[in-house]
Amino acid sequence: MSTDGNEKKVRKVIKRQDQTVVITKGDETRGFNGNIPIVAGAKIKVIPLGGMCEIGKNTWIIEYENEMIIIDGGLAFPSDEMPGVEIVLPDISYLIQNKNKIKGLFITHGHEDHIGGIVPMLKQFDIPVIYGPPLAIALLGEKLKDASLQDKTTLHKGKPRSTIKLGSLAFTYVRNTHSIADSFSLIIHTPLGQIVHSGDFKFDFTPVDGEFFDVYSLAKAGEEGALLLISDSTNVEKEGYTPSERSVYNRLEEEFFKATGRIIITTFASQVHRIKQILDITQKTGRKVAIYGRSMLLLATISKELGHMTFPDGLIINTEDVNKMDDDKIVILTTGSQGEPLSALTRMAFDEHKQITIQAKDTVIISATPIPGNERSVANVVNALSAKGAKVIYGRDAHIHVSGHACKEEQRMLLNIVRPKYFLPAHGEYRMLVMHGNLGVDCGVDPQNVFIMENGDVLELSSDSAKLNGQVPAGIIMVDSTRVGDIDKTILEQRHKLGSEGLLSVMATVKNGKIISEPIIEAKGLILMQEDTTSGHFITDAKKTIVDALKASLEKNGKNMEDLQAKVKEELRDLIHKELRREPLLQVVILESK
To answer: How many CA atoms lie within 13 A of 229 on its CB side?
Structure first.
C-alpha cells in the first residue's frame, strides 16, 4: 500500500477483509488524500436521509460507484402533533434497497440524534463495520447488547487524526468540541478531493476535559483545497459565540453552596462534561450523589472507565440510601431535563416517584434548555415543583446551561478555516439553512455553490460541477413502544380526532335482513347537552337515524356488512354535523345474528 512519500510516518497498517485501517500518530495523516488518487470522470453523491429542515434524525450517505458509506444514524423526538409516538426515525428504504453496497458506518459523536437509529437499521440489514469515537462506540455497544444484535456488525474505535480507508474512500477523525465528550468532525478523502463534515460543534477554547478543537487539521484540509463543507446550522440565528462549558461551573457551585436542603439536579444524560462538573462540585461541598435514570448512570460508569471523568469510590451512593442521609448531604442527579413523562424528575414533580417526595426545602436545578416542542412539558414540571414549595432554578437567565452548538461567529470562523468550494448547511430547520447559506456567501462561497437541501435530495459532485440530481425515498418512520412503522398518517389523524372531537360508538344487530334489537350508542369525550343522556333528543335522533339507514340499506343491498356500516356512518355524520357541529371519530359495528 503506497503512502506517496509518507511511508515512514505510518506506524501500523491492519488489513481486515475489504477495509484497511491506517493507524497514525500526531499529524501523520497530512496529505493522506494522495492515497486516494483523483479519478477523471468520478462522481460522488451526498444524500441526507435526516437532519435537513429539522433538528434530529441525522443520517447521511456518501455514495461512490457501487459503494455506500453511512455517516451517523440518528433519531428525533416526536412533536405535539404525534400523540402516542415515542421516537421518530428516518425512512431508510433506500439503504434497504441498496444494502449490498453498504461498506460501513462512521459515527461523529454519541448523541441520540446521531446514534439512536442505528439499532433499527441493524434490524433491517447488516452493516459490516461501524467506526466511532470511544464513548459513542461504548454507548452503541450497550444498545446492541440490549437488542441482541452484537453479531450484526463489528465495532471499532476511531482516534483523533486516525485515518480509516474503507472501500474507495478514506475518513480522518478530527477532534472538535461539543456538549459530549469524544466528539469529532470528519475529513472524507474521495477521488474528487476532500469533503469536510463538521459534525455538531462549537469552538470551546477552555474545554472542561482539556481536549481542544483540532483547528490545525481542518485548516490543513482548507489549504489543500476542500471540495465541500457540510456544517452544523443549529445556532446560526444567534449572534456571537457560544459560551464555554466551563462557564457553567461557577454558577452551579454558587447554587450548591447556597442550598440548605436536598439538591435535585437534571441535565441531558449525555452531557458528560456537565455531569463531571456536578460530581466535582458535589465532592467539594461535602455531599453524596445518587443517580436516578439508567441512561445517566450508564453514561457516568462508561465515562469513568474511559477516563472522561474521575470521582472517588463512595461519592455515588445507592438510591436506596438517599432517605437515610441528612438532606443537606444529598445531591440527586436525575433524568428529566425535557419534562419526559416517564422520567424520574417528572414523576417526582407529580408525586408518582416511589422513593422521592418533593419537599419545600429542596433546590431543583434544571441545567438544560428545552428542545423545541418540549417547552410546555418542562413548564408543567416547573409549575408542579414550584407548587410544592421547592426552589426551582431554570431558564436562560439562570446561566446554568450553555449550548453545544456554534453561534454565528463560530460558523463564520469554520467557513474561513475550511474555505470550501461548495457549501452545504445542515442540521437545522429550513430558515436556519438559508441563513447559514447566506453566511457562506458572506465568507466568499459562490452563491451558485451553496445548496439548501431537503431530506432525500441528491447532491452530485463531479470534477467540475455540483448539482442537485434527483431524490431518493425520504420521510419519517414513527415508533410506538416496540412497534416500528405501524403508525401512519391515518392513525395519527384518528388520535387527533379522538383527542379533540371524541368518539361515538354504535352497535346494532341484524338477522335475516331485519334489525332485531335497539341500537346501542356510547359517547366518549363528546360534549352533549345536559339533557342528552341515553334518553335525550340527540341520542333518540341518532337511534332513529341508524334504524332508518339500516332498513333502507337492508332492503337495497341485502346482508353486505360493509355496505351497512358505510351507510350508517354517512347518515350519522350528517346528523352530528347538523345537531352538534362536531366531527367525532365514528365506530360502527353491525353484527349478524345466526
So the answer is: 32
Residue pointed to by grid coordinates 440527586:
332
Residue with cell 414523576: 347
Number of C-beta neighbours around residue 592 at 10 A: 12
Least confident of 145-149, 153-157, 392-396, 481-485: 481-485
Run of H or E residues at 22: strand 19-23
Measured between alpha carbons, how far is 207 from 177 in angstroms, rounded to an integer?
7
- Distance between alpha carbon 581 and the CA centroid of its chain, in Å? 40
C-alpha of 344 from chain center = 20
| Check whether domain 7-240+404-480 has CATH 3.30.1380.10, yes or no | no
CA 142, 143, 145, 150 torsion-angle sign: negative
Say how far apart CA 344 and CA 5 lie, in whole Å: 57
Domain ranges in the chain with CATH number 3.40.50.10710: 245-398
For the whole model, what pTM was predicted?
Answer: 0.79
Alpha-carbon span 116 to 89, nearest angstrom: 9
Which residues of the chain form CATH 3.60.15.10? 7-240+404-480
Where does the pLDDT of residue 398 fall: very low under 50, low under 70, confident under 90, or very high at 90 and above?
very high
What are the tens digits of pLDDT across the range 435-464? 999 999 999 999 999 999 999 999 999 989
CB 412 within 8 A of CB 443: yes
State how far the Cα of 171 lies from the Cα of 189, in Å rounded to an integer.
6
Alpha helices in 374-521 (DSSP H): 375-387, 408-418, 430-442, 489-500
What's the gap between Cα 311 and its chain centre?
Answer: 30
DSSP calls for 260-290: -S-EEEE--TT-HHHHHHHHHHHHHTT-EEE
Quick: pLDDT tens for 142-176: 999 999 999 999 999 999 999 999 999 999 999 99
Q: What are phi and psi of 551, to 5 degrees?
A: -60, -45
Phi, psi of 287 (to 5 degrees): -105, 170
Q: How far apart are CA 344 and CA 346, in angstroms?
A: 6
What phi and psi, each to the nearest 5 degrees, are found at residue 242?
A: -75, 130
Asked if 182 and 135 count as a contact pair (C-beta separation under 8 A), the reply is yes
Q: By CB neighbour count within 10 A (0-12 exposed, 13-18 middle, 19+ buried), where does 397 fall?
A: exposed
Tell me if 423 sits within 8 A of 228, measured CB to CB.
yes
What mean pLDDT value characterizes the chain?
86
Looking at CATH, the fold of the domain delimited by 488-592 is given as Ubiquitin-like (UB roll) (3.10.20)
Element (H, E) at 573: helix 561-579
168 and 62 Cβ atoms separated by less than 8 Å: no
Rounded distance between C-alpha atoms, residue 474 and residue 460, angstroms: 17
- At the fourth CATH level, the homologous superfamily of domain 245-398 is Metallo-hydrolase/oxidoreductase (3.40.50.10710)
Sequence ranges of the chain with CATH classification 3.10.20.580 = 488-592
DSSP state of 43: -
Strands 585-592 and 503-511: parallel
Cβ 171 vs Cβ 187: under 8 Å: yes
Q: Which three cell numbers stand for residue 141?
A: 455497544
